[in-house]
Amino acid sequence: MTVLRSALGRQTRPPLNLRAMSRPRSLSTSSITASEAASQMLHTFQDKTIVRKQTLDGNQLQKLCLTLGRRYGLGPQLDLTLGCPPAGTPVPPGYHLVYFTPSELEEDLGADGTDRTFNAPAPFTRRMWAGGQMRWNDGTELRVGEQVEEHTKLLSAVAKKSRDGSEMVLVEVNKEFWGERGLALVDQRSWIFRKEIDLSAISSSSSTSSMPPIPPPRGGKSEVRDVIMGDNALPDRVFKWSPAALFRFSALTFNAHMIHYNESWTRAVENHPGVVVHGPLNLINMLDYWRDVHRVEGSVLEEISYRATAPIYAGEEYAMSSSKMNTDYGIFEVLVKKGDQVCMTGHISEASSWSY
Questions:
Q1: What are 299-339's pLDDT values in tens digits?
Q2: Closest CA to 172 of 345, 31, 346, 4
Q3: What is the model's pTM?
Q4: How far apart are CA 137 and CA 105, in angstroms?
Q5: 3-state secondary structure 63-99
Q6: DSSP string for residues in 153-171
Q7: Cα 355 to Cα 115: distance, rounded to the nearest angstrom
Q8: How many percent of the chain have pLDDT more than 90?
Q9: CA distance 185 to 115
Q10: In degrees rounded to 5, what are phi and psi of residue 98?
Q11: Radius of gyration of the chain from Cα atoms?
């Protein structure tokens, strides 16, 4: 929270820093521990910032809305099946995730398809998006057609233990997005890096997951619908994503992580029953749910903190619900549940007014 608030308190653009982020050197994978990997990563990236520029094009925003099934997601007068949003259209909260995508050649990707810009050194190369927080600066929202700068730096790298006792590295990265009106957004992301899988040890006899496959969605299509549960005044939002929708989201974010589209890899190597729904996709769904259900005239989205706790797979039905945690201030808890299992949690805070 301190990082986010201090960054958003600055109103002037910092000088452009073009220093490239070098990759961590590899140590012997047989001897390196999670603690050593974290220390090496901190040493490699200490005081380094990477700055990228991009013009926010309307095509990318249009395709995201269509992937989400939000034909009128940018306003009731704009049918996105007919064309792209015009210059000056505000980028909704979270939709910046389809910009500033990875810029690596295929030969530089990890064995599982992930980009390695901020990877921990081997053998801790299996990345999972664990959570994070975003904070918006009112009055400086990003808009279609403007040139934006992304400033990225490593905040921390810490050795951790998983529930089964295995080692992993928790990495936190901070991203600032500077638009024509100043600092628009601070996006802090937490990733977990687990040990790589020995592909040579996977035999043809173990070519499928031990878990039964997930049945495809009805009709093969994704489903998003609002339902009223019991006496609740606010609807739950029910989702079911098809493999095609997940593929489209992977393409938009230039994310080649194979757990999201390659079922053979997902089942045989990662031991999942099906392709995995993206954590960032559900983060966007959370923010859209707030916009649709809770936002009132004059309310402003200030911050979201979120944490992913369990995977969701293509074809699985799951629900998003919310409750107001504070009656005096706009603070909401959003839960993503698959049956009784909580798969993701989010806490959303409002400020004063927003331009959507």
A1: 789 999 999 999 999 999 999 999 887 656 688 999 999 99
A2: 4
A3: 0.86
A4: 34
A5: HHHHHCCCCCCCCCCCCCCCCCCCCCCECCCCHHHHC
A6: EEEEEEEEE-TTS-EEEEE
A7: 34
A8: 69
A9: 23
A10: -95, 5
A11: 20
